């Protein structure tokens, strides 16, 4: 087992990606701190499977934009599981938010949920990892840290902020044996309609824009995360790994404004 007795903190465990991560990593001997908006009710099958595999699990429902709440989670989990070895920041709030019409409160909600929570978790967990002189941080991000969505600029802005946070953290925490990397996801078959837009045709017939014509799944993500958090990836730090099957290599078909 590659992760025997490793303590892994996963944010937004209720999501497709969170469930896939719990399923895959529990089979490698990991224990978990899971932040769940449903307080575990949407994770019942995954929790049963993980506990059957021997995982100890601490489920919480906290506001990750508050450093005191994150610190409290770490203190409580430390009593039963131990200190965090791996942080997987998995927050991925998406709402329609065009630059010319987005309300300020929607912009801040997206930025806080995705980017501010990443900063707070990195800072709080990072202090613990510095004490251990060891640790791994992975941000589950998006190709829209680089490419406009055509439907929510605030989402892209939040993912762009995480992209640079990861670079800064890789430099600072890397001096203390902590590896920090980002996975930028493309379209996944579990939710193919996330970025449907009246402005952009990027996702129209998106399968044909993937060279293999085979969309990815969150199981592919879980396999990549397992590699990155294992000892085999000891020399990978400060990288952005694009997990999109080559989708972003396709140029953007823009729905041009027609003349009157």
From TrEMBL:
<dbReference type="Pfam" id="PF13561">
    <property type="entry name" value="adh_short_C2"/>
</dbReference>
<keyword id="KW-0560">Oxidoreductase</keyword>
<protein>
    <submittedName>
        <fullName>Gluconate 5-dehydrogenase</fullName>
    </submittedName>
</protein>
<dbReference type="InterPro" id="IPR020904">
    <property type="entry name" value="Sc_DH/Rdtase_CS"/>
</dbReference>
<dbReference type="InterPro" id="IPR002347">
    <property type="entry name" value="SDR_fam"/>
</dbReference>
<dbReference type="GO" id="GO:0016491">
    <property type="term" value="F:oxidoreductase activity"/>
</dbReference>
<dbReference type="InterPro" id="IPR036291">
    <property type="entry name" value="NAD(P)-bd_dom_sf"/>
</dbReference>
<comment type="similarity">
    <text>Belongs to the short-chain dehydrogenases/reductases (SDR) family.</text>
</comment>
């Amino acid at each position: 087992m590659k992760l025997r007795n490793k303590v892994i903190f996963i944010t937004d465990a209720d999501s497709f990606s969170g469930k896939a991560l719990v399923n895959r990593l529990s089979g490698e001997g990991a224990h978990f701190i899971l932040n769940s908006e449903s307080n575990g009710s949407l994770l019942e099958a995954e929790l049963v499977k993980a506990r059957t595999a021997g995982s100890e699990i601490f489920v919480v429902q906290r506001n990750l934009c508050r450093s005191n709440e994150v610190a409290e989670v770490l203190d409580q989990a430390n009593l039963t599981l131990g200190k965090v070895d791996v942080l997987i920041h998995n927050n991925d709030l998406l709402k329609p938010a065009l630059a010319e019409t987005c309300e300020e409160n929607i912009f801040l909600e997206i930025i806080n949920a995705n980017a501010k929570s990443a900063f707070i978790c990195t800072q709080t967990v990072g202090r613990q990892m510095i004490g251990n002189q060891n640790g791994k941080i992975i941000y589950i991000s998006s190709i829209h840290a680089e490419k406009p969505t055509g439907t929510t600029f605030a989402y892209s802005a939040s993912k762009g902020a995480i992209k640079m946070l990861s670079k800064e953290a890789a430099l600072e925490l890397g001096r203390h044996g902590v590896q920090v990397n980002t996975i930028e996801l493309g379209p996944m078959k579990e939710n193919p309609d996330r970025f449907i837009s009246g402005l952009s045709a990027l996702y129209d017939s998106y399968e044909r824009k993937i060279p293999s014509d085979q969309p990815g799944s969150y199981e592919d993500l879980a396999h990549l995360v397992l590699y990155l958090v294992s000892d085999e990836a000891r020399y990978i730090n400060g990288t952005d790994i694009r997990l999109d099957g080559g989708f972003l290599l396709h140029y953007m078909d823009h729905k041009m404004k027609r003349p009157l």
